[in-house]
Structure formats: structure tokens, C-alpha cells
Design goal:
Shape of chain A: globular
CATH architecture of chain B: Roll
CATH class of the domain at 4-203 in chain A: Alpha Beta
Number of strands of chain B: 5
Structural class of chain B: mainly beta
Helix content of chain B: under 10%
Largest sheet of chain A: 6 strands, mixed
Oligomer: heterodimer
Shape of chain B: globular
Structural class of chain A: alpha+beta
CATH architecture of the domain at 4-203 in chain A: 4-Layer Sandwich
CATH superfamily of the domain at 4-203 in chain A: Aldehyde ferredoxin oxidoreductase, N-terminal domain
Number of domains of chain B: 1
Number of helices of chain B: 1
Order of helices and strands of chain B: EEHEEE
CATH class of chain B: Alpha Beta
Largest interface: A-B, 39 and 21 residues
Number of strands of chain A: 17
Distance between the termini of chain B: 47 Å
Strand content of chain A: 5-15%
Strand content of chain B: 35-45%
Chain lengths: 575, 80
Amino acid sequence: MADKIFRVNMSTLSTAIEDVPADWNGLGGRGLTSTIVAAEVEPTCHPLGGKNKLVFAPGLLSGTVAANSGRLSVGAKSPLTGTIKEANAGGTAAQMLARIGCKALIIEGLPEGDTWYNILISADTITLSEETELVGKGNFDIVTAVQARTSAKHGIMAIGPAGEMKMLSANISIKDPDSRLRSCGRGGLGAVMGSKQIKYIAIEPTDAKVEIADPDKFKEANRTFTKALVDNPISQALGTYGTNVLVNIINEAGALPTRNFTSGQFDGHEEISGETMHDTIVEREGKPKHNCHTGCVIQCSQIYNDVNKQYKTSGFEYESIWAMGADCCVDNLDQIAEADHLMDDIGIDTIETSVAMGVAMEGGVLEFGDGEGICRILREDIAKGTPLGRIIGCGAGSVGRAFGVTRVPVVKNQAIPAYDPRAIKGIGITYATSTQGADHTMGYTIATNILGVGGSVDPLSHEGQVELSRNLQIATAAIDSTGMCLFIAFAALDDETCLPALVDMINARFGINLVADDVTNLGISILKTERAFNQAAGFTNKDDRLPEFFSEEPIAPHNVVWDISDEEIDTFWDF
Amino acid sequence: MAAEDRISITVKLFAFFRDNRFIKQEQEFPAQTTVRDIILFQGIDPEEVGVTMINSRQCTLDRIPVQGDQLAIFPIIGGG
């Protein structure tokens, strides 16, 4: 059965299942969402208007048994940044979409009136229905209710109240195998879904399997690939401490942005560290290790219980914990877990919202360290859409403008995450040049600047940072197209068997003959497509800059500023 | 060995290196002791070490710390 494009037009309330255009056949994940957005969306359009389109695409290997291949890409023009956007997440949706033969789901147009809708898709039908019961509900209630309506095995992609209110930090939540949530977090794609008045999309389970052109070759390549992942010591540490293992090393390196980016070290780092989190999880009978999608062999997620040993949150990530912790000076992991849970339910990006809270603290809205205050604002203002809630829910830039704060850590209006670019200069190049606003995952130089993965580049030097960021951004764009979790990169950078096995799997899946250079070229072509969209939307190299306070305010303990010249940043695009 | 030939170092351990050891400890070593020797002294296999930092700057295993340095020893870890 050939894959199809599933299309829903919300202006006409019509649906179609179409053949895949030949140009899109070799694409998946981010490569496909960005190609479709670039082909079908006017770059200058209003992101919340009728001309924007929301595109969901599983990766090239999603739906197969390939380890770690369950990432779903969602793309659109971002209402937060005004750039092209791709956000990806685990959960069950990517694998289920691939198995029903959905190469991509494109949602276009806007409905007239205030009616809300839900969508149910299966291998050969798209059903668009009016939704009333779940309007206003949080994501956890949505999952419970939709499973009761359909089955526990249905896939679900949903928005919470933040998406309904079109807050610019709203995310799209994806149901995981335990009926909990993963998030396509960044860039406000939940607001785009909210603008189209779609509360959730459910995917019908199927027994169908993804076709593999050469099953024996696929199996062999997957065995090699899985071994490379499992044997990698970083994978093992991720399964024990989660991504939050980074708090202490980034703090030690003097690059843990603290108190709204005014210091590089946080006195309360031990209290919020991965080590403390691990011990707390074990003591409370949670699970240090948990997979966000079937087939993940790294298992960096976890189940974090409250003091009464009841589930509180999962997918408790370093960046979320850093943002509510060090950046807002909250040293209480339980308060951070409560805020994480609330944000998942409201359906709002934990990085953007927590950095916005840090800016709000500087603006005098609440005190630094007030973890209870963060939870209160989430419950009473953001979830209910008060004017303050809407200001914070529209991100760090929005708070800075509303409260006259000049120290606002954003690039292209998207909050800078958990690594200070003054003390880790490679990541500053990624923040500045990424096609999607500040985003560490676009070119994770921390691997080489700090962790000693893929070689070593001194984080405080100018040397080699542009090249490092460029190579990683190209590789990331390609990995984001395969459906693979980005954490395969740790093995790929240091284990020579890993990447060839990944290419072999793609070849065996489709019966083609790619070589490593083809994968690099795919990454290059995605970045260029995305940049061309941004340029047509009005972005120039002047937008590829960090906020001026990074150049003016030295950060302790290294007392360094951002000092890579504009000319040097601009060489990023010399390829 | 004369007292002046010894130096005092703050050793910090992370992740599973803390198991049955410590988080942070002041330790004395003969001057000219390398980072590798200090790692071995903790009963840690240098092959398991991912990153070492002296005073928040990365260093090699051949580096010789001086009096008062803070040495942080991390296993091979990652995240993001």
C-alpha cells in the first residue's frame, strides 16, 4: 500500500486522501514538514490566519521496528518566531501514522464561527466531527475522554487551554504508551492548531505493518544500530539520571543561566540535579527509566512521584528543570514537578513559559525563588487566560515588552534554553543562526563544547564554533527527518558503526542506495529550504543576533561576554 | 616528605561516581600529582571518565593541579 497525504480543509470542512507528489517521496519528518510548509504556505502570512498550514509527519523510519524511530514532526509558520518551525516529540502518534500509510497530515484553512472540531483518522478515512464536551479541558482529561470514546490504543494529538486561547507558547501534546504526554514544545504550534479550532486528532490503531523492501538487510542493520545505542555509555547514563544529569556539569562549567541570565552558577544546583532526582524517584518508588515510545532503547524519560508516591510527572527534562529551577531560582524539585505537570495539562512549552517567568520575576511580577507563585500563576492566570496569563503565555519576549524588562533572553522572539552562550560559545552560534529561533536541539554543540562527544572544542574560545554549529545543524536536520530521536547522535558521533547502520536501514526500508553524503546533502537542503522561507518572510542576517545584554554583561564565574562578531556569525551560511 | 610538598585539592564527584564515595571532599596529595592519579586514588577507572574540570575549565588527565584547586570528575554523560 503506497503512503498517502491526508488533507483536511477547515475552511470548507472537507477532507482528501491524496497521492504523494514524487518530490516528497524521499522525505519524512522535518524534511517533509519544512518542504510542505515552504511549498504551500505564503511566507508573509499571519501564522494564526487562514493561509498557514499545520503539517504532521512521521519520520522515514517511523512505524518500523528500528530502535528509537518514533519521533513525530510537526511544522507550520510559527506564531512565536514568525519563522518556519518544526517541533518533534515521541509518543505513539508517529508510529501509528506511518502504519496507516499517512506520509503527512496537512491541516489548512480556518473554520467560520466558533465551532470546535476533532479529527479521527484511519488508513482510508478522515472523519471531522464537531467537538463540545472537551472544549476548555486540559490534556490529561482529553486523553482519558478520547480513550473512553475510542480505545486505549488510539493515538492522540491534542491541545490544552493554552492552544485554544492561541497563546504563542502553546504546544501540541502527543499521547505516550502509558497514556501520558510528550510535547511538540517549541514555537507555539498549539496556537496554530487552536486557530484552526481543532481540539484533538485521534489515530485508529491498525495491524498493518510498514513495508520493508529488504527485510533481512533491515534486520541486520537494526541489530548493529541498536547495539551501538545500547553500548554507548551516554545512553546508559541517560537511562539512570535522565537528561537532568546535565544540571551539575553545566553548573560546574559556569554556563547554567541563573536568575534570569545574570549568573552562570546556581547555589541550589544539587537540589535540582539529576543525581537528586534519581534518588528521589527511587525513594518514592517511581521509575528512573521509562520510554516515550515503543522501541526506545535509551529510555531517558522517567516517572517522578510526589511525596505520597503518586504519579506527578514524566519526561521531566533538564531544560524544563533548569528553566524553573536555576533561571527562576527555585531549588525545590517538587514545586518544579508540579509546575511541569501543570504546563503539560495546560499545553504550554515548559522552556518558553519558565523563561518568561524568569523575565516576569525581574519585572517584579513575583519574587525569584517563588515556586509556589509560578504554580499559582499557571493555575489561575495562564490556564484561565487572564490578561497576565496571556502575557506570560505568549512567551519571554511578550513579558519583556509588557513589563519594560530589557534583559530578555530570546532570539527571533523564542526563549534561549539552558546553556549560556557567553560561556559556551558554540551554542550561541546555534541560537543565532537556527532557522527556528533559539533552540539548543537545532545544533547541540554542548556535546563537543562540554561533554567531549565528537571531539573537543573549547567552549570559551572563538575557534571552530561556527563550523561546529554548522556541521551539527546539518546533521540534525537529517536526523530529524528519519524519525530518530536526536539522542542517537551521541552514539553516531563516536561509534563508527552507528551512522552507516542508520543509512543501511533507510536503504533497506525503501529499496534505495543512499550513501553518507546523501544524508549530509539532505540536511543541507532542509536548512536552505527553511532559510529561504524565512528570508521570503522578511528575515535577514540582522535577525541572526543574540540580545545585546549578552555582549555587555559579563557572566560569572568566567566573567565572559558574547564576543563573536556579526561577520563571523554570518559565515555560518557559507555552504 | 615535607608538608610543603603536599597540596590540598577539593575533589567533586558526579553521577554514579558518587556511589559508595562522596559528593565533595578535600583531599591532600603530593605536589606534582596528575589528575589521572587523583582519579585512580578514588578507585575510578580513567576509561570511565568523560570530563574533568579544574576550577570550571576542562582539563586533560595529565594536568597537575595546584594548591586550592577544585577538581570535578564526571563519568561519560550527555543529555539535551
